[in-house]
Specification:
By secondary structure, this protein is mostly beta strands. The chain has 6 helices and 48 strands. A hairpin with a 3-residue loop joins strand 45 and strand 46.
């Protein structure tokens, strides 16, 4: 049935004028875009696309030509001129518009053969949907089947900002599209910096994937990679097939590498990715990742393996070139507050991570952790039972300094109300073990430790302040093997008294017509612990002396871990003042200062470390300023009022612009007679598209540079590149250097890995990377 014939006026394309592509129809210079689009564009984009102008139904050209019941709907057409032969043919000319259900198209001429149910449309034709725009020279449309064939087609996907062209494009049915001699890219019109080109592309919307034959990646119209066949997802569903190849230069300086990842969609709840790669100078290297999702949680296993690393064998005579690594993690939620977890990492040799690792989620470190257990947590109870061990991968760490394994460690803590009182318990059981064949004395000891700290407190709280006196008993028992200082079974009991008090005052005022609230928060904290002075017959399984800082003002113990309990009799006096912006709620400034008055000498040590006979601590202070949303100034330090010397200090200024294009930080770290370093880092745009990246760390004690990073970044709206030269301080007190780079193709991914090193060096760079391609 034919309906809706109407003659309307309209303007057409002049004879001889070349029809614009789909991308050109909606592309506008930045100045001509709506504010909502223009304000979201990065500075390095010269323009963008208008918002999608879809049909009323919001489904577009690839939707069904059927009504809601599945029945065929009438074809509606209009044009400036029409000639109609009853039951045979309708000919339309000038500003032709066709619509059937959700299908719609405009052109210059159309001829509808009612007998065949076929419409021939002459271009330039345009078909627009929600998030999709299509143009072409001529097309055929089947009224009965909904098949749509268009020649010399161009298309634009608004969501991913992907445009393309094809020699011909066919919508075979409701969910299948075939493209011949197709090209697609995320670059703007007339800017084919990179493109994916294929002889045949099929998009299966029902299956959620596409396939392509004779695929190649072109850079500036020059082919650089070729795949005979590729399969790829077109929605959130997963599909087995090759992923985009990865290429670049090894961070270990061994030359170029080429990787071809292959994804295996084995089942809805588990999959795998295999990544064979060739590294110049090393050989064939393989990485694999498997993921399994159950109703309880997810498990991930990653493996790296190379059978014969020629570079490693040459550098280490007598060593096998066979190298491998394994990283596994699992998380499970059992319900009712219970969960399980596990992490396990192991490498074949100490140099694996620096030489080979690229995708395994193991960071460069000195100890690889293996830990697994179960945990239970509610509002007032906590239970954790786990096994914990390490692999040490640094040649510079002696056996005596390697950490102990906990086989197992069990922790329980809980609180309960008892009328006006609050009862609490912190407890722990651990079996400590490490290889001790080469050790002697206390370092050789392994064994069990049980620790419990019951507490009884009287908490009192009000809007204007608080007071919390408490009494606890710190009890520890040991059962040790290979113990050389006497009987391996002994215990220790230390009573601890604490009384924490605070007041809260505030007033309202204004500064530069901005209302703010200023607080004044004095705090008194008293702690007393009656511990025996000599505890050095106890091994140090997990204990360290904590250097004094502002955070320690309100702690009863100067040791962390369970093998030392420090004796103390001290009073802390502290004062904090905050300035809160009443318009935004932000804390604009915080000033804190405090000092500890000691009434007894601190005699307990960790093998000579931690004793002191000073009657007062250094003044500990902290200043945090947030004058602007994007600017923070933080300074903390220790000052000795007796000598007038600064004992420790750390100051840092951090700034970033709203869009994170500008990043800057300046810092200074000082520790008397130990360390003094200054560092400065910045990312500064030289132009809208070029940014300079740099960081410099200088050690005043060594009178030398101990780290630097300098590079350049280029961005445009469809690709970017970073090239960075980095100097870093090694364990042997020498500066080593390397060149890092990263290429990013918008919508396609990238290769190289400079961003990771830059992020570790420059505050805010991670956020900048996320926003770098932030165009809508």
């Amino acid at each position: 049935m034919l309906a809706g014939l109407a003659l309307v006026s309209g303007a057409g394309l002049s004879f001889g004028e070349e029809a614009p592509s789909a991308a050109e129809l909606d592309w506008r210079p930045k100045s001509q875009l709506p504010d909502s689009v223009r304000n979201s564009l990065p500075a390095f984009c010269s323009g963008g696309y208008l918002p999608s102008g879809g049909g009323e139904d919001g489904t577009g050209v690839f939707s069904e030509g059927l009504d809601g019941t599945g029945e065929a709907v009438p074809l509606q057409v209009s044009g400036l001129n029409a000639r109609y032969e009853i039951d045979r043919e309708l000919y339309l000319q000038g500003d032709v518009r066709l619509r059937q259900g959700t299908f719609q198209v405009t052109g210059s001429e159309a001829r509808y053969n009612q007998g065949l149910g076929q419409v021939s449309i002459q271009g330039p034709l345009v078909s627009r949907g929600d998030g999709f725009l299509l143009t072409g020279e001529r097309a055929e449309y089947s009224v009965d089947s909904g098949r749509f064939d268009i020649n010399t087609a161009t298309f634009l996907l608004h969501g991913p900002e992907m445009r393309g062209s094809a020699e011909s494009l066919s919508r075979v049915d409701d969910s299948r599209v075939e493209i011949r001699e197709g090209m697609l890219t995320t670059c703007g019109p007339q800017q084919n910096d990179w493109a994916i080109v294929a002889s045949d592309i099929e998009l299966d919307q029902a299956g959620g994937f596409g396939t392509a034959k004779h695929v190649r990646l072109e850079i500036l119209d020059v082919p650089v990679f070729y795949w005979p066949y590729a399969s790829f997802p077109i929605d959130d569903r997963r599909k087995t097939g090759f992923l985009y190849p990865q290429f670049g230069s090894s961070s270990a300086g061994s030359g170029a590498f080429l990787a071809t990842p292959y994804y295996l969609n084995l089942a809805p709840h588990y999959d795998a990715t295999l990544t064979p790669q060739y590294i110049y100078g090393r050989g064939l290297f393989n990485e694999a990742e498997g993921r399994y999702l159950s109703r309880l949680g997810q498990t991930t296993v990653q493996l790296g393996y190379i059978d014969d690393d020629s570079a490693y064998a040459d550098e280490n005579p007598g060593e096998s070139g066979q190298r491998w690594a394994l990283d596994a993690s699992t998380r499970a939620m059992f319900g009712s507050g219970w969960n399980g977890y596990g992490d396990f990492s192991v490498v074949s040799d100490n140099d694996y991570l620096s030489d080979l690792n690229r995708s395994l989620e193991i960071s460069q470190t000195t100890h690889l952790q293996r830990r697994g257990g179960v945990r239970y947590q509610t509002a007032n109870q906590y239970f954790d039972a786990y096994l914990n061990d390490y692999q040490t991968i640094s040649d510079s760490i002696a056996d005596v300094d390697k950490p102990y394994a906990q086989l197992p460690q069990i922790v329980y803590a809980g609180t309960a109300d008892a009328g006006w009182l609050e009862a609490g318990l912190e407890s722990e059981y651990a079996w400590f073990y490490r290889e001790n064949d080469s050790l002697s004395g206390l370092d050789k000891a392994n064994g069990q430790r049980f620790r419990a700290r019951p507490e009884l407190a009287l908490p009192m709280r009000a809007l204007w302040g608080f007071s919390r006196p408490s009494l606890s008993l710190d009890y520890t028992r040991y059962d040790l093997e290979d113990y050389s200082a006497g009987d391996g079974e002994f215990d220790r009991t230390v009573p601890v008294v604490e009384w924490d008090n605070g007041l809260y005052f505030d007033r309202r005022s204004s500064l530069f017509d901005v209302p703010y609230n200023q607080t004044l928060e004095p705090r008194l904290y008293y702690a007393w612990a009656d511990a025996e002075a000599d505890q050095n017959d106890i091994p140090a399984f997990d204990t360290a002396f904590e250097s004094f800082s502002f955070d320690q003002l309100f702690q009863p113990d100067r040791f962390v871990g369970g093998d030392r309990v420090g004796n103390t009799n001290q009073l802390t006096v502290a004062l904090t003042s905050r300035f809160n912006d009443l318009v935004t709620g932000a804390e604009r400034a915080r000033f804190s200062i405090g000092q500890v008055q000691y009434f007894e000498d601190r005699e307990v040590t960790l093998f000579g470390e931690g004793a002191s006979n000073l009657s007062r601590s250094s003044l500990a202070g902290e200043v945090v300023l947030n004058p602007l949303q994007n600017l923070q100034i933080r300074s903390s330090g220790l000052w000795d009022p007796e000598t007038g010397d600064t004992q420790e200090g750390r100051s840092q200024l951090v700034f970033h612009s709203q869009d994170y294009r500008y990043l800057a930080s300046v810092g200074h770290t000082y520790s008397k007679d130990e360390l003094e370093q200054s560092d400065i880092a910045a990312v500064i745009p030289a132009t809208d598209r070029v940014s300079l990246i740099g960081r410099w760390v200088y050690d005043s004690d060594l009178d030398r540079t101990v780290g630097s990073l300098a590079g350049i970044e280029y961005n445009n709206c469809c690709w970017s590149v970073q090239v960075v030269h980095q100097n870093y301080f090694t364990d042997d007190q020498e500066l080593d250097s390397r060149i890092l780079f990263q290429i990013q193709l918008k919508g396609l991914g990238g290769s190289g890995g400079s961003s990771t090193s830059i992020s570790e060096a420059i505050y805010g760079f991670d956020e900048r990377e996320q926003r770098r391609f932030g165009a809508p």
